[in-house]
């Protein structure tokens, strides 16, 4: 008799990761699979003693991800005494929250001073990451249902940010204003340094709890967006045009909306599953 077997997946933080994991599962001969990037949960509709389980676990491990089996009755990992709630873990997350929210406010002010839409979009990215990390701190030890609800809030918040950035940037297309490229570049370089700092303090935890690893990966990937803003500032300075700034702002808004769609989709599915 089959039932749902769940795993927490360490290292899965985007749709591309989910696609790789699904491919690995199918390579082991299992086709009834549900994957949520919002909660890093993999669900298989198999018997508890199904001979394909070891093959699935091996295939996912070979793909570069780590699995922890979740006990059906409690929602906790099998063999785990308590959630990953050490003082060092929480302290690092609070450092990341302060860095993101603090510099997000500074960069938003800088965006208005320089007239840069890319800086404003990046500032919203900082503030969004701060909120996501804050919700991650609150959700430590929560049940799957409440983690999914937390993820749904994150997804809606990111969607609102994405629509706001898109609308404001569209308005700026028709009313372009001069941009202070020098100050824009300085603020973007500082933003890059802040994200690198956040990634560094998370490195000791990147292979532990899946939520911590996801935060570390977000910080690492955000550095790419900061680098794009630096490049945009240089292009604005060289060309004297505001288009590089607007293009980067649209790109960041697109990332907001895509991430929001994935998180909301997965969170709604997890909420439905948890209520069954």
From TrEMBL:
Pfam families reported in the protein's UniProt record: Cation_efflux, HMA
TM spans (from-to): 92-114, 126-145, 152-171, 183-203, 223-240, 246-264
Keyword set includes RNA-binding: no
Localization (cell): Membrane
Annotated keywords: Ion transport, Membrane, Transmembrane, Transmembrane helix, Transport, Zinc, Zinc transport
Annotated protein name in UniProt: Cation diffusion facilitator family transporter
The keyword Membrane belongs to this UniProt entry's keyword annotation: yes
Its membrane topology: Multi-pass membrane protein
PROSITE patterns to which the protein is assigned, alphabetical: HMA_2 (PS50846)
Domain HMA, residue spans: 3-68
Organism domain of life: Bacteria
């Amino acid at each position: 008799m089959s039932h749902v077997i769940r795993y927490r997946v360490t290292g899965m933080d985007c749709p591309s990761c989910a696609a790789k994991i699904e491919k690995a599962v199918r390579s082991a001969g299992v086709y009834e699979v549900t994957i949520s990037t919002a909660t890093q949960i993999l669900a298989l509709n198999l018997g508890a003693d199904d001979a394909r389980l070891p093959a699935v676990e091996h295939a996912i491990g070979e793909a570069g991800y780590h699995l922890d089996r979740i006990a059906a009755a409690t929602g906790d990992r099998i063999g785990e005494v308590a959630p990953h709630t050490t003082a060092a873990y929480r302290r690092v997350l609070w450092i990341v929250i302060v860095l993101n929210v603090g510099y997000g406010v500074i960069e938003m002010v800088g965006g208005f001073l320089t007239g840069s839409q890319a800086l404003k979009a990046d500032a919203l990215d900082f503030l969004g990451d701060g909120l996501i990390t804050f919700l991650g701190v609150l959700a430590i030890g929560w049940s799957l249902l409440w983690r999914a609800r937390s993820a749904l809030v994150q997804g809606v918040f990111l969607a609102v940010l994405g629509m706001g950035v898109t609308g404001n940037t569209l308005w700026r297309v028709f009313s372009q204003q001069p941009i202070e490229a020098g100050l824009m570049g300085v603020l973007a370089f500082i933003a890059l340094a802040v994200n690198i700092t956040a990634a560094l303090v998370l490195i000791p935890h990147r292979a532990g709890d899946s939520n911590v690893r996801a935060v570390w990966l977000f910080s690492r990937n955000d550095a790419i967006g900061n680098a794009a803003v630096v490049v945009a500032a240089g292009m604005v300075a060289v060309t004297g045009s505001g288009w590089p700034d607007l293009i980067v702002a649209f790109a960041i808004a697109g990332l907001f909306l895509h991430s929001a769609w994935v998180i909301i989709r997965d969170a709604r599915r997890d909420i439905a599953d948890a209520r069954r």
